[in-house]
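If your schedule permits, I should be very grateful for your opinion on a structural question. The matter concerns a single protein, recorded as an amino acid sequence and a row of backbone structure tokens. Could you please explain, in whatever detail you think fit, how the structure tokens follow from the sequence? I set the record out below, with my sincere thanks for your time.

——
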Amino acid sequence: MTILAVFRSRTQALDALGRVSGRGIAAQTVSTPKDASCGCGLSVRFDARFYPTVAALVRGRAYSSFAGFFRSVNGRYVRI
């Protein structure tokens, strides 16, 4: 299962991607699905098993544009 970290700012999404990848976690930027749309349309996608680490990284940076974490449930994205 994958999780999305959704941002309202492309710059902050790319910064988060760099920090997550820098920890050796496979992640990529993706267009934000409509169900989770909150801004710029750019999210960081990663495997759910890394959620605790990614959550700590994102919350530790206190990104002003962070809109939340979302996961797919029955074909729709819902906030975690």
Observations:
- The domain at 2-79 is CATH 3.30.70 (Alpha-Beta Plaits).
- The CA atoms of residues 17 and 44 lie 6 Å apart.
- The two ends are 13 Å apart (CA to CA).
- The first helix runs from residue 10 to 22.
